[in-house]
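Running low. Got one?
___
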Amino acid sequence: MRGPLVGLKIIEMLGLGPAPLAGQLLADLGAEVTIIDRKFDNVDPTDIHRRNKKSLALNLKTKLGHAAAKILINKADILIEGFRPGVMEKLQLGPEKFKKSNPGLIFARMTGWGQDGPFSNTAGHDINYLAITGALHAIGPKKGPPIPPLNLAADYGGGSMFLIFGILAALYERERSGLGQVVDVAMVDGVAAMMSVFHTSFARGDFVEKRASNMLDGGAPYYRCYTTLDEKSISIGPIEPKFFAEFVKLAELPEHLLREQNIREFWEDQQVLLEKVFKTKTLSEWSQIFNNSDACAMPIIPLSEVPLNKHNKARNAYIKINEVVQPAPAPRFGRTPAGYPNAPVGSGANNKEILSEIGFSNKDIDKISSEIN
């Protein structure tokens, strides 16, 4: 393993979505991440979140399985779990159990609603977490209901990224205090923080609560997507006047648009004009026109084509592991670069290796394996 996090030991309790992504990103940068799985299973080469990780399958309801988990957690810097509040406590593996035996442990808890509050024990998904933060209300067309932005905003933006942010902040503080702590990561809190700029706009009277009526929600004709002659799509976003001037020049648009760019009364007419203009050429033709310009115009490409994009290719932004195309480790470091990721492993693939390292005999290792359903 290579990267700036080499030497960091992380236990990841088996989960879905944001916690596994956080574990993957930390493992990509050199951390030793061990998943505690519930059963043995074959490797899934398409499960990118499991790359660079080890796997230990345990039955936590048995004496030996529980003991193995406790030993591992006592040797870890960080534990990541994404269960509902109280589940780890029921397993007798909550943070209080490790205060004396591993006082430096950072116990990172990933949930949608947080560890407390009226919704904390209810089920939810990305779309629900966005719903109570104002984010979902702001996304979509003027008419009809909002459109969920995949599950990028709450699960991975408000979840994974704030989980990593919390972990690294707690690690920094531990350098001074020598003590770990619980990090309560709620997706609703993370999304709320990401909405700060819109709270600023709203407080200034610049944000209209009707969708597709603002600069960044598709309301501004210069910050939205258009259909081309060949029924493909292009994104444009020349917000700054000098970039908008470049866009107007290259698209051969009327110069009066330069004076009217931010006058909302003209936005609807400008949008109609741009819809007609973009329908006159193919996406390839528009891409050539805007190539290497400051017009802030880029073709919208499907997932299957992202590795072929010239910028992505030049930066080696995508790699292949066992023929599975996936993003390369990010961000990039000049002095301690991350290594090429290892392929995912099956559940329990590292049982013998890990259990031997922490002192279990072959007999006990066999018993632990036999206790897994």
